[in-house]
Write a structure and sequence with these properties.
heterodimer, A: alpha/beta, six-stranded mixed β-sheet, 9 helices, 10 strands, B: mainly alpha, MetI-like fold
Amino acid sequence: MPAGVEGSSFDFQPRVVVHVRNLRKRFGHLEVLRGVDLDVTSGEVVVIIGPSGSGKTTLLRCIAGLEPRDSGDVTVDGHFVRHAWELRGDVGFVFQQFNLFPHKTALGNVELPLAMVKHMPKAAAREEARRQLERVGLTDKENVYPAKLSGGQQQRLGIARSLGMRPKVMLFDEPTSALDRELVQEVLTTMKDLADQGMTMIVVTHELEFAERAGNRLIFMDGGRFIEQGTPRDVLQSPREARTRQFLGAIGEFVADPDAGLREHGDPDR
Amino acid sequence: MSGYSFDWGVIARNWDILSASIAMTFIVSLVAEGIALFFAIVVGIARTTRSPLIVVPATAFVEFFRGVPILVLLIWVYYVPALAWNVQISAFIAGVFGLGLWYAGGLAETIRAGILAVPVGQREAAYTLGLSRLQVLRAIVLPQATRIVIPPLANSYIGMVKDATLLSVLGVTELMRAAQTVVGRTYRPFEVYTFIAVVYVIITVVLGRMFSLLERRLKTA
């Protein structure tokens, strides 16, 4: 699947950044991932939707090396993924619960891995951290501790902290689910900016509008498998699979073309 | 007690030995607390690792020192090296190590609990940023665990001050031992023991207030 994003126009042949082959994972008796294949090319923005328990989060965690897998291959930028720390920040991970370091200021949160992992001198790390804070609009908050930031600001700080490591890909695990409704937009805007800048992204979210605006590809996941995928427009407006329609119906609204929706629902098994 | 005439002057007349022994009580408790902290931090961290080679001895340490009565441990540490290996250690050394190790067993559990109280998401975030396990422990987990365990650690020190009285059985001239000496000389047990009881209450109340102040500071920081 070609990327087709302005930011990656110099990649004449789209480079595969994330490569997942036949990934399986079980927790006890529960098979959470039942053979997942995924290739994400440079600059591509892949949005994954699906009901809770469908394996979306586990998939992200396996790609980041946070979760050991039972079988299958995961490589990022050609490197075989084993443990998260071995990736040295190449896979940025944005958590639903932010997971900022509470004993460090906003600037300190971004600086810490630059100093400890990239071994940047103090001045250079500070400069880079400021640049990342500016990128997410938190320049005036650099000396503020996370507890004193709003949820939206905290999540933007989480994004800046990952960006400092110059990741090859950014993974977002329901980045706006813990936020009050009015704080969601600022985080989505930051993410859309990133996408426009050519960042390779995999986003697990329920924000369908974001998926349509920012995503190159939308994947519907259920029961540990990819049920269907395609351009966000196609999947959202004319889903082929009954389970996709069911899910989109359950989470509500998104009926850009009500007639199409009616037609689909009238003939679920086609 | 009819006909007993109090003589509180006995305190003043023996002030030299009593005041020196108060200082000794603090020295004993501080040194023992230092020893306790050292072993508690090492053992507490060891208990949170996954390698059985590290966890099993650490758990044995905790269970042994929490299981043995403190008085038995003190006497054991004092006499056994002398009898078994012909190494005579001073009562002070035996006392602070006995006290320190006994406290380390309990404090190791406090420190383990503090480490486990740091949310797992903190570690995960640090790993995705490329920090190694050791870096995560040093820069992320321990600083946060420290804030959690400082109040219980501070309070354990109050217990340490009181338990320093047990070193009197080894002949270390801390407050209790000094009191016994003065009583032996003056036959004034009522005045002398009342005095040291009051001294202990004052010390522990003052320390308690100081630590709760510290606790409030930590919360707002």
